Amino acid sequence: MAIIMHIQGFALGAFQTNCYVVTDEGTRTALVIDPGYNPEIVLDAIDDYKVTHILLTHAHLDHIGGLGKLKEVTGAPIYIHENEKDWLTNPMLNGSGRWPQLGGPITDPAADHFVAEGDKIPFAGRELSVVFVPGHSPGSVAYILEDQVFAGDTLFYGSIGRTDLPGGDFDTLITSIRTKLYTLPPQTVVYPGHGPETTVEREKKLNPFVREDYVYDGEIE
Asked: I need a surface site. Which of 117, 123, 160, 210 has the fewest CB within 10 A?
């Protein structure tokens, strides 16, 4: 019997941050990527599944606003790049200390595992590959699952992640996109941290920011 995998996306909180839930019907297991603020709809979606992993693409406040609640409910291990190991518990690093009006300082549980380039994370008979894509933040990673990539705030539909926050760097971000994401097969579906999904092929052809003739003016949002 074929194992059926589903991917659901939920736009959470004031930033409409995409949280992704990947479920496997054969094993009734799930993993969650980037649980942002107001995660109640995500908790409903995973109610009948055993959550085996909580994967973070990076630790900005809008991607971890619901992490504490999700960890409390599921007990699942948290994965993040070591460059941002202190961000989960430090409000000034994750940004929640600068914008307390969004829900107060975030001092989430510490990570259970650190991920790095080339790591393989098993899930329901498959593997997610970790790709290190710094630039938006110093510990940004993407997770490749078959012909899909969960790209966080590295690459969007027709845009890229901002680089004006602490630890961001425009040239590093562009290099990450060109050498890591744009080398994936053209049909690879990109699930970004904000906005609609896209494909590697579309962004290579049409994304205006990742071009040889593009000049950064400091205005990317």
From this structure: 117
Residue 59 contacts residue 68 (beta carbons within 8 Å)? no
Residue with tokens 């990947």: 22
- The Cα-based distances of 118 to 77, 79, 143, 147 in angstroms read 19, 14, 10, 16
51: Cβ contacts below 8 Å, ≥ 6 apart? 29, 30, 31, 32, 70, 74, 76
pLDDT, tens only, 25-67: 999 999 999 999 999 999 999 999 999 999 999 999 999 999 9
Strand order in the sheet with 126-132: 120-123, 126-132, 141-145, 148-152, 189-192, 198-199
Check residue 42 and report its DSSP letter: H
For the question of whether the overall pTM of this predicted structure is more than 0.90, the answer is yes
Half-sphere exposure of 58 (CA within 13 A, CB side): 30
164, two tokens: 């004006």
Measured between alpha carbons, how far is 27 from 170 in angstroms, rounded to an integer? 41
Q: What is the mean pLDDT of residues 93-122?
A: 89
pLDDT at 216 over 70: no
User: Read out DSSP for 51-100?
Assistant: EEEEE-S---HHHHTTHHHHHHHH-PPEEEEGGGTTTTT-HHHHSTTT-G
Helices (H) and strands (E) in the chain, counts: 6, 14
Residue 28 is encoded by which pair of tokens? 């009734």
Which contiguous run of DSSP H or E holds residue 127? strand 126-132
